[in-house]
């Protein structure tokens, strides 16, 4: 049992936590949440003995074995699997002792060590390390590669594998999913579900927390409150708590009124129909979820794209790769406004390569990619943060993108991403990873794209920012292609799943639960298990597949109506412009002089004709909109 009694913790002159009292019982699983800077990582440092409490008492059992992930990238020529095995310190000590006993020909000591090795499963240590590496996405032929041959992200996975290798009583994991793909996240969820010790995990991935946590410790305003249940239960409980406070209730009421006003005004306008439906969903969820994020500092939205052509991108046999060697080939895909695609697959399968192909950053190695002339791509890449100018401010970054914009306009825009006052003028260099990610995302939003390509946009983003991004994507009128390890974001924003594997990019017939089952079957087969890979998702999930197919059929039925609405809107815009010009002429007093009588009569007749044409177009638009609503 871990006890914190009235603990106060400082960093420099700032108080991070004040009078925190907390009890964590053995084998509990606690998710630690809160905005960046609220003291989550400092709390872990306190439990690890790296920081001392400024006031209060920390009580932990003697002899507790604690596992945690090193935040420093490992280096050297040691083989990856040997580095992972190092996580089991007792096993390594027994191996060293056994070597000494053999050198001393101490048979009794050797027997004792062999007995202990048998007790702790030491003879299966290498196999256990191999399973960990495989689960975290390492291919078997990389197990014996030196650490120096891996990139930074893969080295952090080695650190995680080493922590999981430790036979610990307490495990402290700080953002363990940041360097993982969705496949590895799903595997880690299952691993932690079987972990027999006490678990404290910091995460901004709500689905991950739902899967692994039974309690949520929420840090806010230098205080900490422990809630029973997973993250979804925490959201509901905190929402109920906040709703009891009048000021917050009034804030929510204003937000509801704003959303309802938008719906009432635009739900029957074709160009706003998708956004109106998204706001209806927000109203439905607001009773439980939105209040938990009522005080979020993030209030941004994607601007309405200037152009929304019938299609944006077409791939018919395209291939992506390097040095004339395809990584993914035979891609056939059409992306149109309103499409929401998520790319699934392990790291290294080619997801980012496909995204670069779509973004135009590398050419197709086979059939070219068709691009509409009005295509405007907003591309958030994994290397986006590295391309920021660390000496420039957030405001300077936007001024370079749009020199004609006023400073006030740009500062107002940055405020939606919580860059206020001096923060908008400060150099980027000392920004946290989350702040840099927010700036990089803000730069993408500012370009007013009609196609968003988002490659792991949630890395370093806290829960409030992820909530704001989810809401903005729901309102976005263009198309989205998303690569993410955040299941909740995929579920909330995407309706098509495409799997990148074995050199192909193809639709996945099922939902994320089906994908998780498919991965488990593949894992069992790879480890020599007896669980056969199902040929197709289980019948119990067939309704989900049917719903996905029905949604696709629905879009096909709606497409002619949507095209007709766009055509009518263009006609209406043209007639309205002519009518405005005509009425400007009719407002000229000189037109009614005797010598202009014939011209005045002609313009008046034309005005009547244009008004009738406008009324006819509006009626056709209303009829078409009603038909679309019924569909």
Automatic annotation (TrEMBL):
Question: Domain ABC transporter, which positions?
Answer: 2-246, 313-527
PROSITE patterns the record matches: ABC_TRANSPORTER_1 (PS00211), ABC_TRANSPORTER_2 (PS50893)
UniProt keyword list: ATP-binding, Coiled coil, Nucleotide-binding, Repeat
> Residue spans with biased composition (Basic and acidic residues)?
543-565
Question: Which GO terms fall under molecular function for this chain's record?
Answer: ATP binding
Q: Where in this chain does the entry annotate a coiled-coil region?
A: 84-111, 232-259
> Does the keyword Protein biosynthesis feature in the UniProt annotation?
no
Return the annotated region ranges for Disordered.
525-565, 583-613
SMART domains noted in UniProt: AAA (SM00382)
**What InterPro entries is this protein classified in?**
AAA+_ATPase, ABC_tran_C, ABC_tran_Xtn, ABC_transporter-like_ATP-bd, ABC_transporter-like_CS, ABCF, P-loop_NTPase
Q: What is this protein called?
A: ATP-binding cassette domain-containing protein
**Source organism per UniProt:** Spectribacter acetivorans
